[in-house]
Amino acid sequence: MRKIVLASTSTLFGQEYLAYLKPVMQQLFTGIKEIVFIPYARPGGISHDEYTGRAAEAFGAIGIGVKGLHTFEDPAQALLHAEGFFTGGGNTFLLVKQLHELGLMEALNAEVEKGKPYLGTSAGSNIGGVNMQTTNDMPIVYPPSFQTMGLVPFNLNPHYLDPVPGTQHMGETRETRIREFHTQSNIPVVGLREGGWIAVNGTEITLQGGLSARIFKAGHAPYELESGGNLALL
Amino acid sequence: MRKIVLASTSTLFGQEYLAYLKPVMQQLFTGIKEIVFIPYARPGGISHDEYTGRAAEAFGAIGIGVKGLHTFEDPAQALLHAEGFFTGGGNTFLLVKQLHELGLMEALNAEVEKGKPYLGTSAGSNIGGVNMQTTNDMPIVYPPSFQTMGLVPFNLNPHYLDPVPGTQHMGETRETRIREFHTQSNIPVVGLREGGWIAVNGTEITLQGGLSARIFKAGHAPYELESGGNLALL
User: Fold this and answer.
1) What's the confidence (pLDDT) of residue A169?
2) How many CB atoms lie within 10 A of CB A148?
């Protein structure tokens, strides 16, 4: 049975890394001693080792060991032997480029579809969508493809931000950007506010975290889905 | 002699389309009766015709005719015969994809290098940089390349936004995103605030518009360049 959590953000304002997700992590990774961490998104350009250290600290607090995928000579083999996965946030273009170039996107997908638990935050959640084309990140590198795992039948927009009333800034709002995406694609988009996450249990896909999410479908007005709501049939 | 204006935005808050740029347009396009408008960025998904109509209205007010590049059977020939160019804003990925797929990126570059005046706003300014990898736009389509014209020896970040003091949002600031770009590239980046523009006259490249810009160079702390400052030797 598939067990997946795709969170908008790793960190809530004023909190420790992954703190608000600890109960979710404990449930998702029940019975698991060690996970593989995928550090390729490198937030702020930090090293893979540093980033893995951060994840190890947070998982250590719930008694789970962490190995960085970058430390394995054969990362595809490492995915095959792993018990579970966490992909951290950062730059989605970097993450997707590296996963495709190392031939790992489909390998990771296959392991998660087998039922190995997967946690993603931010960029790590984006790759659970059909493609990365609703990321907020800058295209700092050129990936060979924008396709991602498609663990859910829609795209995500993590760190979703509502339009700021009365702003004088003329740059596009998040809603405008997603509407532009829908001139090119019919894939639904879940605007996932910080503090919210998507939980997949087998074929069930629900919104969690106590916040509503903004749902965008091509040709329809966007609407709010309350926490607990069904995302399986968007 | 090269004559180029790359503006952060087409429109200032509460003003008409291109209103604040009219004196600049009059000077840039002196003696020119008709320009070719490049509408491919399609802001908000509007049609090429609608978008060209907007540009025609603004240029009509200063006595200059506008033809949309999309109306020509052979757009490369249209660039060759044009007197000058304006590329409007919208989605940079759409714009760059279409220019590359139609074989127009280098053709446009060649005409501008010959001395035909070029105005860009937002996405239309991004393509004046070395590449589009510091755009704020969503990757709603997959372009065959991120390379752009390189009319200036740096990249632009239009609609540049300073970090918001006291925000509780955990998404990356613009400065963080540009710093991440500099883990991958040594190309300098000009963070161009709304109301500012870059003026190229021959080999002179200066900042204009009365606002400072934020300059980002790999391995250096970002700094402010005052309006009037030299951008030729970043």
Assistant:
1) 81
2) 27
